[in-house]
Amino acid sequence: MSDTTIIQLFVFMLAGFVGIQTIHRIPPLLHTPLMAATNAISGISLVAALVLAGSGEGWLAGLLGAIAVACATANIVGGFLITDRMLAMFNRRPNPKNGATP
Amino acid sequence: MTHTIIQLAYLGAALLFISALRALGHPDTARRGMQFAAFGMAVAVAATLLDARIVSWQWIVAGLIVGTVAGYPLGMHIKMTAMPQRIALSHAFGALAASLVGIGEYAHGLVHGTLTSFQTASLGFEVLFGSLTVTGSLMAFGKLQEILPGRPLLFRGQNWLNLGLIVLAAAALVAEIVTPGHPLVFGSMAVLAALVGVLFVLPIGGADMPVVVSLLNSYAGLAAVATGFALDNTILIVVGALDGLSGFILSMAMSRAMNRSFANVLFGAFGAAPTVDAAAAG
């Protein structure tokens, strides 16, 4: 294994730890929005799909890449739109409550 | 120079994604968190488009247009009550993208004869997690959408069959790592993983499905990590790890919120199978 790979393993370990820590003790109310948001985030494989689709390695790589780009884009666009809709819905709930208490 | 710009942009995107996850954990800041994540994604994609490996644009543009057109109704015209199945379907898309990239990169390495054991291992994990997530998510979608029966489907020896298939898929992966360059072995590994995805979701009932959907999200993240190792791409490793581990923790938190043990949700078939048989007999 090269030095780069070792450093990447460190990056993986630390990022994973951050992932665990940030989600720790999240209120159940936010479970579904978080699931929708991380679903959109998992569309990061678009980055790899772009490189494959644009590699100019013939039509097979191009076609596979284009399908991958389309799938990942649909995942990202749909995921963020629906998370936003969901959060907009229950952002309304605390506001009237805050408005009513004072 | 371009390389440095790309890497620095990735660094900024990683920071945005981490802040996003943190903000998503509190009701007041959740929406801002989502905007951070969307912005981070835009930065990562824009930086990637500068990559020197990208030489042709027609496939990229076609894919982006089709994806946006398909993704918009998936986000805007779906009822809130249909949320879990929509997320499951979206997972299937994301994981399919990861699997196709894995297969494409494998084919590329095969043609050019550049496959190393390490790269094969990364691509193998990517396709393994990817195809498992595709079929598992489609099963979850089918059950939640009530295309398939929502009740748990159980049969004798189910867990042993699953275990056997996982062992076979792992053996294929190991064989491919030891001597890279056998497309048949690589392909059968992908098919085995896809089968495991179907069988893994089969015994899980509709009510427990959100936990499974979140776990599949975690697998999609791990597939992205494997892609990152194969392509030497740090943002994929960082974001995949964030997604993979937070998805795992989230699925445990969700089963706790339902007063179920995590193992019970996933491997409930162990204890449940005889009961169902008895009920069917009586």
What is the gist of this entry?
The complex is a heterodimer of chains A (102) and B (282). Chain A has 102 residues and is mainly α. Chain A contains 5 helices and no strands.
Task: Tell me what you see in this structure.
The complex is a heterodimer of chains A (102) and B (282). In chain A, 78% of the residues lie in helices and 0% in strands. Chain A is mainly α. In chain A, helix 2 packs antiparallel against helix 4 and helix 3 (46-53) runs antiparallel to helix 4. The relative contact order of chain A is 0.10. Chain B is globular, with a radius of gyration of 20 Å. The chains are: A mainly alpha (102), B mainly alpha (282). Chains A and B meet through helix 1, helix 2, helix 3 and helix 4 of A and helix 1, helix 2, helix 3, helix 4 and helix 8 of B.
